[in-house]
């Protein structure tokens, strides 16, 4: 079937190219139409208590998002006019300032003390604005943009919605820049490492089409995270470039056996499909393991990247051959000297000193594991943002002027009596770090009936079934102090309403910490288990997958352990994503060299010569692949101001290089040492049961160029 399809495709290269280019039109439409979610907290699972509380804020309180507007040194009539303008905005459900309750004619000194403390600090005053749509919705984002246009330079919009809008604008500005840098750096690597000058351009054209198709088909998911959109293109470029190189190398081999280039390409396509589909399974398994995360950002990224690998393979098999056939006569015209030396001498030296590398491998295991397991993570979203963003400046103002670093909302039943409410609020105010407790009763004070307040103000705090209490804290979210504070708050509230909801940025961030701690363990185990099964099936072995996965796991531990060694915290997303992606994407390095090692054993080589030949044949492919991954991610690392994105790409780039180093320097030595074990625990390891052993003198010598990348079928 594949062979017939390959022959049909190779007979119509111009038609295939035309169709491939036409498919860019729906891909572009899909790319533009796919919504991007810039709110990381929205990926928390629906059954988390803080998320359920957020849904209650949306309905019945119509307060799905809340922002604070800080006005410095402006007269009361300006603030009151601004309040009225804001209340007329679409999707603003409520806006509250002191004029709502006491009027602007009353001097500030005459305000009830709690009202004055909550809304005034020096010459600054604060206004609370609530929106009826979720904080990351397009409607709320548009409202934030409009609100910022309405205020002057002495006003600041604080809160999560403003932060999400700033992330959106930053990603939109940065994405084209580091995408271009990634392409330029990748092209430079390919031009240096590939002797045929035209081929790097064809590789990038083919992968560019696959990336476009992947981004366009994201529309079937409804929306994607900004984290996914920011790194998916870069990651797909780095991960799938190998497939293009393999097909071309295979085509060059087949050209020596066929007179017609179309027959040669058809044979190369048939062989490549079988090999690449098997090899890519480890990468796809690594990505799909992310789908097991309860924090659904993992599923978002896992699906997009797994889909990207599949589309990458299909593009290489279906489209790249047409490019090559159309330009075949020109490909060989412009070539430069191969920059790579013959690695035979290096690998003989390596195997001669194998004891050193094996001992080093064993000695690194314990400290590397310790370091990566003690790498500290941060969960505070704002920490990954540059200090110059408007929302971050506003949030700092809010903290400095009003002692508000985080906001927490408590939702209790509506029929809770006033005495219990007053007692609970007093206890909450006494919790260390709580700066304000804002509720209907705290604003009224003792002895003032509720009917004195306008209905709009009452609606902010009370519904038919629930009433809410707003807490502000001078502790930053995702800190140990905030964790302790939330536990005290939860214990107090539970005494008065054991079915209460505690939500807001601080509570959701703490839930995120708990969910992600479990996700990290689950995805690590799943990715290792899935890849173990695939490698075990490929080699029909129980011992080979243990050795290969441990080699790459060491690379992952070193990669994350460097963060501990440098004393740096990393974003909570990075370790989980890296542990799956680095394993899935770079275990191919180890599979490549092991496959060649087994081939040489089956060809009658002794284990020393087989290890030397396997390393020599594989080193160029591993070096090229790792440098492509490095170059694809380096641009993001250098350009992006989003620390979360920058950290992930730095870890991906560094991880590829560490995996390549361990594979080139240590895996050949491990293969030599473990070959007797492989022989006993692998079905038909040496091919003797199938009569595949051939005398070594019948084999062609391995060139220093590395040849084609022979991946397991």
Q: How do the strands and helices of this protein lay out in sequence?
A:
Blueprint: H1 2-10, H2 13-22, H3 24-33, E1 35-37, H4 49-58, E2 65-72, H5 76-87, E3 92-96, H6 113-119, E4 120-121, E5 124-131, H7 138-150, E6 155-158, H8 160-193, H9 198-217, E7 223-225, H10 226-255, H11 261-288, H12 297-318, H13 320-326, H14 328-331, H15 344-352, H16 354-373, E8 377-378, H17 390-402, E9 406-413, H18 418-429, E10 434-438, H19 440-444, H20 455-461, E11 466-473, H21 480-496, E12 501-503, H22 505-539, H23 543-565, E13 570-571, H24 573-602, H25 607-639, H26 643-665, H27 667-681
Parallel strand pairs: 1-7, 8-13
Antiparallel strand pairs: 2-5, 2-6, 3-5, 4-5, 9-11, 9-12, 10-11
Helix pairs in contact: 1-11, 2-13, 3-9, 7-8, 8-9, 8-10, 8-25, 9-10, 9-12, 10-11, 10-12, 10-25, 10-26, 11-12, 11-22, 11-24, 15-25, 16-23, 18-21, 22-23, 22-24, 23-24, 23-26, 23-27, 24-25, 24-26, 25-26, 25-27
Structural summary, described in words:
The chain is α+β, with helices and mostly antiparallel strands and 713 residues long. The protein folds into four domains: 1-33 and 194-335, Multidrug efflux transporter AcrB transmembrane domain (Multidrug efflux transporter AcrB transmembrane fold), CATH 1.20.1640; 49-158, Alpha-Beta Plaits (2-Layer Sandwich); 343-370 and 522-682, Multidrug efflux transporter AcrB transmembrane fold; 405-503, Alpha-Beta Plaits, CATH 3.30.70. The chain contains 27 helices and 13 strands. It has helices spanning 2-10, 13-22, 24-33, 49-58, 76-87, 113-119, 138-150, 160-193, 198-217, 226-255, 261-288, 297-318, 320-326, 328-331, 344-352, 354-373, 390-402, 418-429, 440-444, 455-461, 480-496, 505-539, 543-565, 573-602, 607-639, 643-665, 667-681; strands at residues 35-37, 65-72, 92-96, 120-121, 124-131, 155-158, 223-225, 377-378, 406-413, 434-438, 466-473, 501-503, 570-571. Strands 2, 3, 4, 5 and 6 form a five-stranded antiparallel β-sheet that branches. A four-stranded antiparallel β-sheet has the order 10-11-9-12. A two-stranded parallel ribbon has the order 1-7. The longest helix has 35 residues, at 505-539. The two termini are 17 Å apart.
């Amino acid at each position: 079937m594949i062979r017939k399809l390959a022959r049909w495709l190779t007979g119509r290269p111009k038609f295939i190219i035309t169709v491939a280019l036409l498919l860019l039109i729906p891909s572009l439409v899909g790319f533009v139409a796919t919504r991007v979610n810039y709110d990381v907290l929205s990926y928390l699972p629906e059954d988390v208590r803080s998320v359920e509380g957020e849904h209650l804020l949306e309905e019945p309180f119509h307060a799905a998002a809340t922002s604070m507007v800080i006005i410095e040194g402006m007269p009361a009539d300006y603030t009151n006019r601004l309040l009225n303008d804001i209340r007329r905005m679409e999707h603003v459900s409520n806006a509250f300032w002191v004029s709502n309750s006491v009027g602007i004619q009353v001097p500030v000194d005459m305000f009830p003390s709690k009202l004055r403390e909550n809304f005034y600090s020096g010459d600054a005053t604060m206004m609370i604005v609530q929106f009826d749509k979720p904080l990351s919705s397009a409607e709320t984002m548009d409202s934030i943009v409009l609100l910022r246009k309405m205020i002057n330079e002495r006003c600041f919009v604080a809160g999560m919605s403003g932060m999400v809008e700033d992330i959106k604008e930053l990603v939109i500005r940065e994405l084209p820049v580091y995408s271009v840098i990634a392409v330029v750096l990748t092209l430079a690597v390919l031009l240096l490492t590939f002797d045929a000058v035209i081929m790097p351009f064809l590789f990038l054209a083919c992968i560019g089409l696959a990336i476009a198709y992947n981004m366009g088909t994201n529309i079937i998911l409804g929306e994607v995270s900004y984290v996914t959109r920011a790194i998916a293109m870069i990651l797909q470029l780095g991960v799938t470039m190998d497939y293009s190189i393999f097909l071309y190398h295979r085509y060059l081999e087949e050209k020596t056996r066929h007179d017609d280039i179309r027959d040669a390409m058809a044979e190369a396509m048939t062989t490549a499909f079988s090999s690449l589909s098997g090899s890519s399974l480890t990468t796809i398994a690594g990505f799909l393991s992310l789908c097991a995360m309860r924090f659904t950002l993992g599923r978002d990224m896992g699906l997009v990247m797994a889909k990207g690998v599949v589309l990458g393979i299909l593009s290489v098999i279906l489209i790249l051959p047409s490019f090559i056939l159309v330009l075949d006569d020109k490909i060989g015209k412009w070539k430069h000297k191969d920059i790579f030396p013959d690695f035979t001498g290096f690998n003989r030296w390596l195997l001669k000193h194998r004891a050193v590398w094996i001992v080093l491998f064993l000695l690194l295991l314990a400290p590397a594991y310790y370091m990566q397991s003690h790498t500290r993570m941060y969960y505070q979203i704002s920490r990954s943002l540059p200090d110059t963003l408007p929302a971050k400046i506003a949030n700092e103002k809010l903290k400095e002027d009003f002692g508000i670093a985080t906001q927490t909302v408590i939702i209790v039943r509506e029929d809770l009596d006033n005495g219990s409410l007053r007692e609970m609020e007093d206890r909450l105010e006494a919790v260390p770090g709580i700066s304000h407790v804002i509720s209907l009763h705290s604003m009224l004070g003792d002895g003032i009936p509720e009917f004195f307040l306008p209905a709009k103000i009452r609606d902010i705090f009370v519904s038919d079934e629930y009433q809410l209490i707003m807490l502000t804290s001078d502790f930053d979210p995702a800190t140990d102090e905030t964790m302790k504070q939330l536990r005290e708050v939860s214990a107090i509230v539970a005494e008065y309403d054991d079915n209460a909801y505690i939500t807001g940025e601080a509570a959701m961030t703490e839930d995120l910490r708990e969910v992600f701690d479990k996700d990290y363990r689950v995805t690590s185990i799943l990715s290792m288990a899935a890849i173990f099964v695939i490698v075990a099936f490929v080699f029909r072995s129980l011992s080979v997958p243990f050795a290969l996965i441990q080699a790459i796991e060491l690379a992952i531990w070193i990669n994350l352990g460097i963060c501990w060694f440098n004393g740096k915290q990393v974003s909570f997303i990075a370790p989980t994503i890296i542990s799956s992606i680095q394993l899935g994407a770079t275990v191919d390095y180890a599979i490549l060299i092991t496959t060649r090692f087994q081939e040489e054993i089956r060809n009658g080589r002794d284990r020393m010569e087989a290890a030397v030949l396997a390393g020599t044949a594989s080193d160029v492919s591993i070096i090229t692949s790792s440098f492509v991954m490095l170059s694809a991610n380096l641009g993001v690392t250098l350009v992006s101001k989003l620390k979360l994105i920058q950290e992930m790409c730095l870890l991906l780039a560094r991880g590829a290089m560490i995996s390549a180093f361990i594979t080139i320097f240590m895996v050949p030595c491990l293969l030599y040492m473990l070959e007797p074990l492989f022989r006993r625990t692998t079905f038909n390891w040496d091919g003797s049961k199938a009569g595949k052993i051939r005398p070594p003198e019948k084999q062609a010598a391995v060139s220093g160029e590395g040849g084609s990348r022979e991946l397991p079928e």
